[in-house]
Design goal:
The chain is mainly α and about 80 residues long. It is built from 3 helices and no strands. It has a domain at about 35-75. The chain is about 75% helix and about 0% strand.
Length: about 80
Protein backbone atom coordinates (compact mmCIF):
# COMPACT_ATOMS: atom_id res chain seq x y z
CA UNK A 1 0.00 0.00 0.00
CA UNK A 2 2.85 2.32 -0.81
CA UNK A 3 0.87 4.23 -3.45
CA UNK A 4 -2.59 4.28 -1.87
CA UNK A 5 -3.92 7.83 -1.89
CA UNK A 6 -7.39 8.81 -0.74
CA UNK A 7 -9.56 11.56 -2.20
CA UNK A 8 -9.31 13.56 1.02
CA UNK A 9 -5.53 13.72 0.54
CA UNK A 10 -5.71 14.87 -3.08
CA UNK A 11 -8.65 17.29 -2.94
CA UNK A 12 -6.94 20.02 -0.87
CA UNK A 13 -4.12 20.13 -3.41
CA UNK A 14 -6.52 20.89 -6.25
CA UNK A 15 -8.18 23.91 -4.61
CA UNK A 16 -6.73 27.32 -5.41
CA UNK A 17 -7.32 30.06 -2.88
CA UNK A 18 -7.99 33.67 -3.92
CA UNK A 19 -4.52 34.83 -2.93
CA UNK A 20 -2.93 32.13 -5.09
CA UNK A 21 -5.11 33.14 -8.04
CA UNK A 22 -4.03 36.77 -7.64
CA UNK A 23 -0.39 35.70 -7.74
CA UNK A 24 -0.97 33.59 -10.84
CA UNK A 25 -2.71 36.45 -12.65
CA UNK A 26 0.01 38.89 -11.62
CA UNK A 27 2.72 36.61 -12.99
CA UNK A 28 0.78 36.11 -16.23
CA UNK A 29 0.35 39.87 -16.53
CA UNK A 30 4.07 40.43 -16.08
CA UNK A 31 5.05 37.68 -18.51
CA UNK A 32 2.65 38.42 -21.34
CA UNK A 33 1.50 42.01 -20.87
CA UNK A 34 -1.97 43.50 -21.02
CA UNK A 35 -2.31 43.23 -24.79
CA UNK A 36 -1.66 39.47 -24.95
CA UNK A 37 -3.88 38.37 -22.06
CA UNK A 38 -7.20 38.64 -23.96
CA UNK A 39 -5.70 36.67 -26.85
CA UNK A 40 -4.48 34.00 -24.42
CA UNK A 41 -7.90 33.80 -22.77
CA UNK A 42 -9.62 33.56 -26.15
CA UNK A 43 -7.34 30.76 -27.35
CA UNK A 44 -7.73 28.96 -24.03
CA UNK A 45 -11.51 29.14 -24.41
CA UNK A 46 -11.31 27.78 -27.95
CA UNK A 47 -9.07 24.96 -26.76
CA UNK A 48 -11.50 24.00 -24.01
CA UNK A 49 -14.40 24.12 -26.49
CA UNK A 50 -12.55 21.84 -28.93
CA UNK A 51 -11.64 19.46 -26.11
CA UNK A 52 -15.27 19.21 -24.99
CA UNK A 53 -16.40 18.68 -28.58
CA UNK A 54 -13.86 15.90 -29.13
CA UNK A 55 -14.72 14.19 -25.84
CA UNK A 56 -18.44 14.34 -26.70
CA UNK A 57 -17.74 12.81 -30.12
CA UNK A 58 -15.73 10.01 -28.52
CA UNK A 59 -18.49 9.37 -25.99
CA UNK A 60 -21.11 9.25 -28.78
CA UNK A 61 -18.90 6.88 -30.79
CA UNK A 62 -18.51 4.54 -27.82
CA UNK A 63 -22.25 4.61 -27.12
CA UNK A 64 -23.11 3.92 -30.75
CA UNK A 65 -20.60 1.06 -30.83
CA UNK A 66 -22.35 -0.41 -27.80
CA UNK A 67 -25.71 -0.12 -29.55
CA UNK A 68 -24.25 -1.80 -32.65
CA UNK A 69 -23.01 -4.66 -30.47
CA UNK A 70 -26.50 -5.05 -28.99
CA UNK A 71 -28.03 -5.17 -32.49
CA UNK A 72 -25.43 -7.71 -33.59
CA UNK A 73 -25.98 -9.96 -30.58
CA UNK A 74 -29.78 -9.91 -31.06
CA UNK A 75 -29.41 -10.78 -34.76
CA UNK A 76 -26.89 -13.50 -33.99
CA UNK A 77 -29.14 -15.13 -31.41
CA UNK A 78 -32.06 -15.07 -33.84
CA UNK A 79 -34.06 -12.53 -31.88
CA UNK A 80 -35.74 -9.97 -34.06
CA UNK A 81 -36.56 -7.70 -31.19
CA UNK A 82 -40.21 -8.75 -30.99
CA UNK A 83 -41.48 -11.21 -28.43
CA UNK A 84 -44.38 -13.43 -29.43
CA UNK A 85 -45.80 -14.79 -26.20
Amino acid sequence: MLWSVTLSQVLPLAVLHPQELIWIFAILFLLFGASKLPQLARSLGKSIKEFKKASKEITNEIESAGEDDDDYSSKKSGGGGSVNG
